[in-house]
User: Fold this.
Amino acid sequence: MIKINNTIKHGKILLLFLILMGLFYSCVPTKQLKSANTDLPSSFNGLPVDTLNSAQLKWSHFFEDEHLIALIDTALANNQELRIMMQQIDVAQNEVKARKGEYLPFINYGAGAEVEKVGEYTRNGAVEKNLDIREGEEFPEPLTDYSAGLFATWELDVWKKLRNSKKAATLEYLSTIEGKNFMVTRLIAEIAQSYYELIALDNQLTIIEQNLELQGNALTMVRLQKQAARATELAVKRFEAEVAKNKSHKFEVLQEIVEMENKLNFLIGRQPQHIARNSDDFIATAINTIDAGIPSQLLLNRPDIRQAEFELEAAKLNIKVARANFYPSLGLKAGVGLQAFKPKYLTNTPESLIYSAVGDIVGPLINRNAIKADYNTANSRQIQAVYEYEKAVLGGYIEVVNMLSKIENLKQSYMLKEDQVEALTASIDLSTRLFQSARIEYIEVLLTQREALESKMELIETKKDQLLAKINVYQALGGGWN
Assistant:
């Protein structure tokens, strides 16, 4: 028995119906989007034009310390957060492949076996009882059924819904790559900042130890002065308290060094261990000139802005996908195979040959609330993506302006603090000699030493802030990922 279900001959009727339904659903009102300004802020035009941009330097050329370069190189290979992001990129890439396959035909194969016993006093039973397969050969009881064949389904992408969905997935994949690049810039900046903070702590520890040596000498001098009845027990106790205070501060700095080393070890993905570094000549570290380039280069250099741009483009396509859900979809189904009640008859053709072809049109007619909600959601997400893009551009511009201003102000502050340190360092020896000659009180010596220590600490902090500002402006300009 051959079953044939062939409706391709009705193709003209289906096509005409599709056109009429398309005209009907094309009347669906589209949400009027509020136009958003995605141009650069007008304040960009006020900056000097200079195409030189430090962000175009590779990070290994931007940083000169070989220990820092080794740490960054290790982190780019071992950082767990970066590895997680790489898997996210693979997920986005697989999503592109999945959506690409949706608008291509699906071809499946299948095989089956069935056994059935029908009642004699039923329609099928009566037919089988009174109908022979061939003359003198009745239907077997129970009746078996064996089949094998190929089956194909294909949704015709008339409204480009599936293709736009694939393009949106591609843009989201590119957005994920830019997200990874942005993570790389932040990781490099964080490692460099932690490295210089660690070196600054080393220098602070050195200053504390030097100051403890000076205070120890001053304490010895005060004790001798007391024995000679030229100083009181109060002076001795004040100096002892100052020494104890700085010794306590020393252990606080030692703890900060341990924590900063372990922070770096975590960022580069390894167990706690000593961080190789060059802490000598920290104060003499040169702050190289930063070339900010022109503002429009931010659109090309900063991964977060590029990521927002790809997400905006994907949001636009998602609106088209959501709008296409209002229109009817056209699907084709076809199959060809062999079917018989005994396996030996499967190869008998054309008797055992079966095939079918079906075309259908399905479209929403009543209760389209869910489709409308998805469409409105896609519109809202597009507007949200526009604001995210504007936010990224404006935020990037402000970061650069702030960091460039900070570098210049820190430069002036550092020069003044150098003068302060030089003056207070010279006053330490002067106050000691004046105290020995009984021309000043011990409290002036104590205050002079304390102010000198604080000024040296502030000088180290200012140098650290200069280096961190240099790193931050490099990151703000979009450097580090390329």
Remarks:
- The mean pLDDT is 83.
- DSSP finds eleven helices and seven strands in the chain.
- The first helix runs from residue 11 to 25.
